[in-house]
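Sequence in, structure out.
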Amino acid sequence: MRHTVVTHLVNNRTPLTTVMKISGHKTLAMVLKYAHANQENIQEEMDRLEKRFGSAA
């Protein structure tokens, strides 16, 4: 259940330090083991970066 909650928090862009406190992990390294970015979120972030910096290039 912890994995599912951590994954949902990360996918909703909750700061990792907040996820760490909610989940009870002692280190960010442990949070990252549970937090898997999905392809959709990666693409959304790339699109946001392109909108922000793409026109500046």
